[in-house]
Amino acid sequence: MEIIQNPEAIEDKSMNIIEEEVADLECSDQEKKIVKRVIHATADFDFKDLIIISEDAVEAGLQALESGSNIVTDVNMLRAGINDRKLGSFGGELKCFISNDDVAKEAKEKGITRSMMSMRRAAKNPDNKIFAIGNAPTALFELMKLIKAGKADPELIIGTPVGFVGAKESKAELEKMDLPFITVRGRKGGSSVAASITNALLYMK
Amino acid sequence: MEIIQNPEAIEDKSMNIIEEEVADLECSDQEKKIVKRVIHATADFDFKDLIIISEDAVEAGLQALESGSNIVTDVNMLRAGINDRKLGSFGGELKCFISNDDVAKEAKEKGITRSMMSMRRAAKNPDNKIFAIGNAPTALFELMKLIKAGKADPELIIGTPVGFVGAKESKAELEKMDLPFITVRGRKGGSSVAASITNALLYMK
């Protein structure tokens, strides 16, 4: 068996296989790139029908990146999956507050989760315009609550919490928000999905 | 809508939902814990029938952990998904060499991928007894080649590369190896899957 070793050649061949399966998707080329990268990272074609991209999401995301926005993630695993060199080339940084000692301390004092507290922390910096939440429904719920209270004003939310308790509900609520978002219907999602969506945007620039 | 905020309560409720769906699985309780944690992280019940655990894998993994083994990962995203505090309590460390400058340099000199070079580097330390490879088929192929050449001797391989080029083939070859392994048949896999399997083992201790 011949093993293809060149990472670019592997990715090109993979994307060609995926392209055949999603050729009939009715969306823009940019939106299709997002769907393809998620399928590339999961080998799960269900995402073809589950990913929902609001009309203005790609443009809003690209504009935010161009202006040097940071990207906030809910967990460190998602942060590790995003191309930080590419983000840095636009002037932005990856931010994740979940493991900060002071976030843990304040969360305990207030009786909320660290995920929630890390969203409150992130909302304070106006350079944090893109939020990627791949795991914790409580983080996504908290961010939407902050927005409704006028305490957060992100330009794009990539919200793909995964799981059986609260994930689906948090994403259904995100779909009702009047702001740019990219999400996944149902229970599926996770760090790999959120990272792929974010990287797809980064690679468009 | 009531939002469950307590992370432990969310996990317990999730695991109860998953338990109902996998109740008929014919395997040990420990093996079932691995399957459930993967489904918990992906919300994808396909994994119920795709995860293959060699007869001796759980015991070998637990023994390696107990002896203070490090865990080597192919990519940083997977490293970030494994509970390092728990691993540290047994005396082990997480190791990932893919981003090391000298690994990149040596890979270039030898004309191989950084993934492959990082496996060669990892194989040199006998305390690296557990390998978790969630993404790069070339890393898994290289590790198996090192084993066959007598240059690596891991006690457990968690091998779940994902994708369309080489992933399925690398895992099929892993199933033929005469050593403890945990894998996923077909194209699916990835960092979230490999992290869940590894954490399931860590949480058994």
UniProtKB/TrEMBL annotation, chains A, B:
InterPro entries this protein is in? Cbl_synth_CobH/CbiC (IPR003722), CobH/CbiC_sf (IPR036588)
Q: Which residues cross the membrane?
A: none
Q: Which residues form the Cobalamin biosynthesis precorrin-8X methylmutase CobH/CbiC domain?
A: 10-204
Superkingdom of origin: Bacteria
A family per Pfam: CbiC
Q: Which pathway does the protein contribute to?
A: Cofactor biosynthesis; adenosylcobalamin biosynthesis
> What Gene Ontology molecular-function terms does this entry list?
precorrin-8X methylmutase activity
List the keywords (alphabetical).
Answer: Cobalamin biosynthesis, Isomerase
Entry's family note: Belongs to the CobH/CbiC family.
Protein name (Swiss-Prot/TrEMBL): Precorrin-8X methylmutase
Protein species of origin? Acetohalobium arabaticum (strain ATCC 49924 / DSM 5501 / Z-7288)
Lineage, opening ranks? Bacteria, Bacillati, Bacillota, Clostridia, Halanaerobiales
